[in-house]
Design brief:
Helices cover about 75% and strands about 0% of the residues. It is an all-alpha fold.
């Protein structure tokens, strides 16, 4: 087979580049949801989209085998995103190996979908536990959960304290005592972490990312991003776009 000729033919026949880009963006956002440990957001996404009208690339003429290949890719990518987010490498890869073995032994497409959903929930729970493992008090656990679940909002110490029915001074002092950083800085760091992931994997503009993460303006987002990372969003993208999980670093 002439690979270059076949590539050109398939690209011409496809005619769905925009749809594929949209699907890719949704897929990356899905992995990010798992790696964030946001179990509530994951359940919402599983109910609304997972397994519904998914157009999978053809990796095998056999439908069952094709679905197994895609499920294996899912396991590999989810493990990599979770490693990026702090999961121990041995844990992430071993868990991936276990699920890939189960997927390989599956005898129906329904079983494969079920295993993929179980895999996503398992990784997400572990990331959620990892986030909480260094936290002592229930109030800080609640605060972290709230931040993860409302990362798209304009969060402040006061708004979080109000949502949790806590005194803002008490929560601020407790968070600094147990986490070693201020609650405001933690909020900022979490938003910038999400922004970095979006810049690495998506084509969204700085304005779109700023709006998505609840910044007051694009200029404020760029200012905070540069203060945190030492680079502007576009400088960060040029240096890191599609590199982190594709080059094995």
């Amino acid at each position: 087979m002439n690979i270059e000729k076949e590539l050109a033919k398939r690209l011409m026949d496809d005619g769905e580049s925009t749809a594929r880009q949209d699907a890719y963006n949704r897929e990356i956002n899905f992995y990010e949801t798992v790696a964030s440990g946001n179990t509530k957001a994951l359940e919402e996404r599983l109910k609304s989209s997972f397994g519904q009208s998914q157009k999978l690339g053809k990796l095998s003429m056999n439908e069952l085998q094709n679905n197994k290949y895609h499920a294996t890719i899912l396991a590999a990518l989810v493990s990599r995103f979770c490693i990026e987010a702090g999961m121990e490498i041995s844990v992430a890869y071993t868990l991936s190996d276990i699920y890939i073995e189960l997927i390989d032994a599956a005898t129906s497409n329904t079983e494969i979908v079920s295993l993929q959903m179980e895999l996503l929930r398992h990784y997400c729970r572990k990331m959620n536990e990892l986030t909480k493992s260094n936290v002592v008090s229930r109030h800080n656990v609640m605060a972290i959960d709230y931040i993860r679940s409302h990362i798209q909002e304009s969060l402040t110490v006061e708004s979080i304290a109000d949502a949790l029915s806590l005194n803002s001074s008490y929560l601020s002092k407790l968070f600094k005592q147990e986490m070693g950083i201020t609650l405001s800085r933690y909020i900022r760091n979490q938003k910038i972490d999400v922004a970095c992931s979006m810049l690495r994997h998506l084509d969204e503009s700085s304005l779109s990312i700023a709006n998505y993460l609840g910044f007051s303006s694009q200029s404020h987002f760029i200012q905070v991003f540069k203060k945190t990372t030492g680079m502007t969003p576009e400088e960060y993208r040029r240096k890191n776009y599609h590199q982190t999980w594709m080059n094995g670093d």
